[in-house]
Fold ATP-binding protein.
Amino acid sequence: MAEITVAAALDSLDTVLRFVDGQMEQAGCPLKLMTQVDMAVEEIFVNIARYAYHPEAGEASIRCEAGGDPFRIVVGFADRGRPFNPLDRPDPDVTLDAERRQIGGLGILMAKRLMDDIQYEYRDGQNILTLRKNG
């Protein structure tokens, strides 16, 4: 499993996506799967960049593993920001009009729908969120 550590800042998003895409391309990942994983990775990383350390600065580590038979992609995020499990929040009611809907939660809902599995744990002072997608 390859890993990078970047500043938990929006400026690092392109680096994170290039890293994950590089791992998926190297493993021969189908384009449709890459697109789905990229969308989920972007949502998760943007949330880390905006909220994990705010107003302070910090780092995030991203791990990626792709390949196997059957094909599978695993992307893990770790940060030392405030403990926060986005999976604990109830999914937003998308049947409501935008004016009546509570703010927030759409990004994690999208990631849940795109991925086959998402898990969260707080361990050793770190938020650890893992995405899994089978091909």
